[in-house]
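New to this. Look over this protein:
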Amino acid sequence: MTGTILLVDDDLAFCKLLQRVLEAEYSVTYNTNPLEALEVLKTRNFDLIILDLSMPQMSGIEFLEAVHATSPTQDVLFMTAYAGVETAVEAMKKGATDYLLKPFQNDEVLYAVKNIFKKKELIEENRLLREELDEKNRPQEIIGRSRKLFEVFEIIKRVANLDSIVLITGESGTGKELVARAIHYAGIRRHRRFVPVNCPSIPENLIESELFGHTKGAFSGAQSARPGLFKYADKGTLFLDEIADIPLALQPKLLRVIQEQKIRSVGEEEEKDINVRIILATSKNLKKMVADREFREDLYYRINVVPIHLPALRERADDIPLLVHHFIRKFGRDIRIISDEVMRYLVNYPWPGNIRELQNIIERMLIMAEGGDSLGINDLPCEILENARSHEQKTAWGYAAQKKFMLDQFNRNTVAGALKESGGNVTNAAALLELDRASFQRLMKTCGIKSEDFRE
């Protein structure tokens, strides 16, 4: 059976006849009393209700209203022996799915029922497809508990349901697109497209047509019209990554599109309305670029509405252990032991490539791991080990330098004190420190002290 049907009609003979027509493909239950049928619906669910509009105990409209009061999406096919348009319109307004006029042929009711079930299948397929796409496009969780990252989370919450322009800044690999996706999927546009655009990857001579579209024949090679990425992202979010690389000549047009929410395709005279949420990102210093006349000042102030700055990974080193365990789970490895030394080396590494570099190194370590369920020093890549050795050397040199400074300071104070006490007499000063004259003079030379500076 492909579906369940409840038939409600006060004519018993008609119910039995219709049951025989439908039962080859569907599971059909009938009831001649609408009040009893409502009780049945409290304990059972049906894919479709076929309902007569004219019954002595209760009208079909009243039954329909009672059903939709508790199950607003319930499909109802109603039947009437009256051809009045008003009755049909009223039932459809109340939420009926379709209607049939009595008397009808068997193939008519079969067609109507199959059509309803086909629509139900399409709706369910679309729902599952949307869930699948949502799952596929759902951004990765932003991992971290640092104060700087908490501030980013707070801004995401505040702007998600707004259409304000967001400018995300931060070094390469800090997760700017991740934040852009988080804003999109937390907001009211989450069921629409999120369209990421890497501006540097588009050739300068093509970027205008890529963003705004072009008409057929607008330029050499334009064999057909193309709507452009702004139009493709209509009602959704367009993420322009590395916006600093947009050519200066194109920036005025981008400014106008942002301000007016209208685009003019290459080769076209008329503008078209769009409805796009715009999020931008850059790893460059736009303020400096404005000062150097490499980026338009008016565009900079127009896009810098809600700034979000992502800290470099080295600025939130406390989050590194969380990220390490997250990536281990992501790559599906059962690693139970990570030595304290390995974690210390990872935390002390400066991560010039930020989170992207950390993810790649963890993946490499898992592939090359020798210890099965554990990660040890031998699994660390050479750049991490070299940094650790350099760090340890610098630390050791730091201790040695500090010790020498303190010893030199002590000697200087001691020699100066003895000379002051002896009035600049070297022999007497040496005696005070229980040193021979020659040793005391060498110490004076090392400290850069002269006896005459203490003579009265």
In short: The domain at 4-134 is CATH 3.40.50.2300 (Rossmann fold). The CA atoms of residues 175 and 337 lie 27 Å apart. The mean pLDDT is 86. The longest strand covers residues 75-80.
